[in-house]
Specification:
It is a single chain. The chain is of the alpha+beta class. It has helices at about 5-15, 40-50, 90-95, 150-160, 165-185, 225-240, 260-265, 275-285, and strands at about 95, 105-115, 130-140, 140-150, 255-260, 285-290, 295, 300-305, 310, 315, 315-330, 335-350, 355-360.
Length: about 350
Amino acid sequence: MQTRNPELDDLAARTGIVFDHALDFLPRHTGKNGEYGGIDSMALDSLMAQDAPYNQQTLITSPDSGIPAFLTTFVDPKLIEVLLTPLKAEQVYGVSKKGDWTTQTAMFVLVENTGVAATYNDFGENGRSDINPNFVQRQSINFQTFTEWGDLQLERMALARIDQAARLNIASANTLAREMNLIYFYGMSGLQCYGGLNDPSLNAALTPATKAASGTSWAVATPTEIIADIQAGYAALVGQTVGTGGNIELDSPLTLALSPISETYLVTPNSFGLNAMTLLKTTFPNLKVVTAVQYLSGSTYSYQLIADSIEGQETAQCAFNEKMRAHRIIPATSSFKQKKSAGCWGTVIFRPAGIATMSGI
């Protein structure tokens, strides 16, 4: 039985407010003698299922699709730099400063002692000693790079925790260092500026011995065969020095420069567990091994065996006139730019006889 809600009727009579009587007709239990009873919950569920206006709300905004993705994104404050090729020329040949950035030509004085002795005689004037000087020239190459940054760019990068100005300084220093490293190895075409790999004064490259597994590559060589190739380079060093040799000995400071790939073959063990690296350290106690990717040209691997010094004179040196010069910062309306420059002479080889090259390993 459905009856009106007597409480709403009474409230309407006393206040004069007209109430919505939709709820007055909710299904209720009938009390004794037909008086007003409680709401029939089962009947109410059935009624509400049909009563859409009282159960569903129409959205004004778009349906919820979750929070913005960037709020759940973690940005690691550590900057991970892209892996680049190591700069190894200075480790291979050594390095020194020659002149300054105003210097265009460097002159190196090569002095040869000459003389002949004669049998002594109180009144004799035979015998004569002299010197034969040569003046060898090299030309420098100066190069530059620019960095630019703007005010808005700096602040936007700062939101990502990147110090743009500082990172540009690092990038410019890296650019100049890489250019200098290339010139140290290959020189500069058109100038008397040569590299450690192509200086015209270098002796012709040696050819490695044919291996038992065929070919000359160290990839198929035994440790004994690899050692034999390096011993051939050492024999060339001894033979290239003045007279019949003797300026270089087994315990002389030596540098073996080769490709990182070639270095891996030095640790290949034989059937007795020995490898070429162990045998090298035993044979040449003061040998230093340095790797550089420049010792791979196309598909040809090579090495250089270098006597670090002969009778106190360095065999070769990477030479620069300006490592890096930071020029003035130029401000614009809302940006800045700066030039940085450097210069070098390539690799100056003082004693070409102190370098032996083998190609085809």
